[in-house]
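Appendix B. Raw example, untouched.
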Amino acid sequence: MNNNGVRDLIYVYFNENDQYVLSYGIEFAEFASALSDLFNNILLLKHQFDGGDFNIHTLLEYVPNDRLNKLFEEPVYNYGDFCWVDFEEIDGVDELPPQTLAELLYLGHIKDHLKTPFYNHLRNRFVYLAHDDGWWNKVYYRNTMDFYRMLGDVLADKLSDLKPEKNLIGLRKKKAYPSVNKDVLLNLKTLMKEGILLSLKDVEQSRARIEIPIWVIGDFNNMDDMYEEYERIAKQKCDIKIVFDKKTKEWKAYSSL
């Protein structure tokens, strides 16, 4: 984490069969900033948020769409566990069968699925399971293209926070970079299935381009172990890099091998 409180490493492990991404370095506020237009309401499975409504059928709290902004501003890292699933209509929550409720409670408690965690009653796009949000996050995506959209936005926003450029009189200014387009990130899909680390800490910048190094690092569930592995390989040549061309304002991926 840098001096601005922005996590400058992103770890991604993509389990394609089960449609989830395990990550380090992407926080709820960043996730929500990128994708909040895709979910209507949130059913809270594990949380400490005091601004929700109580649902008598499930004995769970939920956050209606018009109050989501309050949740987005919460310091959810301090909650410890923060788990939720989105849903379209409260009527669907009221009609959840006991088996589905049991599966939801299992998701929030164990942070793993019993069956596919996408429910007809909820019409959910996501299942968001975090412990110390931003440290260990597991997110299920009904449509994995949503993940690539989110990652592209988060990388651009982090770069703007971490690498502000100077104007003509030398004052640092935050520069908004375009989102990393999906095609570039899809080129990393095979590597993501092995587990990759993108390092904004080790960005190389020149007048013409910005280079974000990426290492294939492996499948980690323990992020302390992942970070130790990063410290071991950080001095080695990266496996691939994504590069922003300042003239064309475009992103591309380049192998370093």
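End of appendix B.
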